[in-house]
Amino acid sequence: MCVTSQRFARGGAYYWMGTNNCSPCELEGNNNMIEVTAVHMVGGTRHEHIAEVRWRNLTTNDTGNSSRQQMVDWVRANPGQAVVDHGGRRAYVGVVDATPPYIRTYADGVWNDNLLALPRY
Prior knowledge:
Elements: E1 3-10, E2 13-20, H1 24-28, E3 34-41, E4 50-57, E5 63-67, H2 68-77, E6 82-86, E7 89-97, E8 102-107, E9 110-112
Parallel strand pairs: 3-6
Antiparallel strand pairs: 1-2, 2-7, 3-4, 4-5, 6-7, 7-8, 8-9
């Protein structure tokens, strides 16, 4: 397997982040890779308020919706396999180990707000 999971601390919180050691052709053949395409927010506008996401499997084009907890569990089990496309560049989805845990994107090892830039539903 070419993707590993790392847990690290920053600012008093713990984060889970996939470490992608794969070539692009290895990733394209993975049936588990999904792209998050939209978010449903409840009670606010920050990452902690993402209640559900819509996604598309990049190999099969299957689509679905998953709750925040389902995505947290899935990303932890499949690190480096959930992405957000932002202007042709991929940001990976990781888990912020807060109470409750939530998802957030990162690129080049830096957390960013690509999930919050997605369409709402």
